[in-house]
Write a structure and sequence with these properties.
By secondary structure, the chain is of the alpha/beta class. Helix content is 34%, strand content 23%. A 6-stranded mixed sheet has the order 5-1-6-13-7-14, with helices on both faces. A 5-stranded mixed sheet has the order 10-9-11-8-12, with helices on both faces. The termini are far apart.
């Protein structure tokens, strides 16, 4: 039988008491400052980028960071940081966390811990005009494939090539990011590229009929909010805030807004990446 509870004062009070009061566990330095300092590199739509019309910082990660801060009762101080400087900035305490599409990799755990908030997977793609050349993934063997050299994609491409290409390995071309890989693809300097499937669907919607995916993702990854490995209190507080956003529907709404519904998680985890 369904509950007869309605939005009376007593029923509302009972509901409110079930919501975690995660703000009470914020580290003192953040609570006293009243802000959470987050590092971001806005070049990875739809996770983080500058709006072409207004130059405003926008994207899923930006919306998620603002929503987490509201749960914690603080504001966000976004610090635009070069990707290579993010973990050093975390280590020196210049930022409290990194919220910028960073993969949770076991190789990064000695330097940071990750509150995981998104699933992703590296995906091959080519120009739509050449889609017929890549009717199956084996057609990539012997071809030039580009991807950001700052990610785990080079190793994953090499592993896939070793497993499937025999004496005709993929020729990997390192790029300065996913945008550079797409530019080289359009210029014909590479035959195909690899990008996280959490961003590729958005890019393809922005540039209809320009790209075509090839096969299925070649791996599975978790994207996480990087926090100092020595700051267990902040890790647990952020994980609690994320779980609260999942429970109240905010997280689901943000996934839908940014075309990421298939990349969502059910519950926050810490250092679950491989």
């Amino acid at each position: 039988m369904k509950s007869l509870c309605t939005m009376t004062i007593s029923c509302l009070a009972a509901t409110l008491f079930t919501i975690p009061v995660v703000a009470e566990t914020l580290p003192d330095r953040i609570a006293a400052r009243g802000s959470l300092i987050l590092a971001v590199t806005p070049n990875y739509p739809p996770l983080e980028f500058r709006d072409p019309a207004s130059n405003a910082l926008t994207g899923f990660d930006v919306d998620l960071g603002e929503a987490l801060a509201r749960k914690l009762g603080v504001k966000v101080d976004w610090q635009e940081t070069a990707f290579e400087q993010m973990i050093p900035a975390l280590g020196t305490g210049r930022v409290d966390a990194i919220l910028s599409g960073m993969s949770d990799l076991a190789s990064r755990h000695p330097a940071a811990s990750f509150v995981d908030y998104l699933r992703s997977g590296p995906q091959f793609f080519a120009q739509a005009s050449r889609a017929a050349e890549f009717s199956d993934m084996q057609a990539l063997c012997g071809k030039s494939v580009g991807a950001s050299r700052r990610t785990s994609f080079p190793k994953e491409i090499a592993a896939w090539s070793d497993a499937h290409c025999g004496g005709k390995p993929i020729n990997f071309v390192g790029t300065e990011g996913s945008a550079d890989a797409r530019t080289q693809l359009k210029q014909g300097r590479i035959d195909a590229a690899v990008q996280g499937n959490e961003t590729l669907s958005y890019v393809m919607a922005q540039e209809p009929s320009v790209y075509a995916t090839i096969g299925e993702p070649i791996g599975a990854q978790l994207t996480g909010i990087a926090i100092s490995k020595d700051d267990a209190a902040l890790q647990n507080t952020v994980a609690g805030a994320l779980d609260s956003l999942i429970a109240d529907g905010t997280y689901k709404a943000l996934l839908s807004k940014w075309r990421l519904s298939s990349n969502g998680i059910e519950k926050a985890s810490i250092n679950a990446g491989q």
